[in-house]
Amino acid sequence: IAKAQVTTINATLANPCAALNVNEIPKSIDFTIYPNPTNEIVNIQLSGNLVEIPKIKIYDMIGKLVYEKNNFDNFASQNLSFRVDNLTTGIYLISVQTNDKTTTKKLIINK
Q1: pLDDT at 70 over 90
Q2: Do you find a cis peptide bond into 26, omega within 30 degrees of 0?
Q3: CA 89 to chain centre
């Protein structure tokens, strides 16, 4: 019978809190999509006080970028609207991005 060799390694972190850096937690944007499911127009209601105009990106379920919008005439109201009637029925991921924040949610297109 062969004997197993066991090696024990002890390590001590100089600063145990350094492994969990709070600054690395990604910031998010709070928003609501309606109607969801939709077939023609998507509305996004932004929560909070964004000072920069967000970018909207929509990806299909294999990760392909299928829609992108960077400018909105109605941004001051924190309500964004755009057409998605060119997208086929399916499940998509809609991403709202600013310089330092990104949030992604599910969008359903049902025709």
Answers
A1: no
A2: no
A3: 21
Q: What is the 3-state secondary structure (H, E, C) of the chain?
A: CCCCCCCCCCCCCCCHHHHCCHHHCCECCCEEEECCCECCEEEEEECCCCCCCCEEEEECCCCCEEEEECCCCCHHHCEEEEECCCCCCEEEEEEEECCCEEEEEEEEECC
pTM, to two decimals: 0.71
Question: Can you tell me the mean pLDDT for 47-68?
Answer: 87
Residue 29 structure tokens: 């944007």
Q: In the predicted model, what is the mean pLDDT of residues 18-32?
A: 62
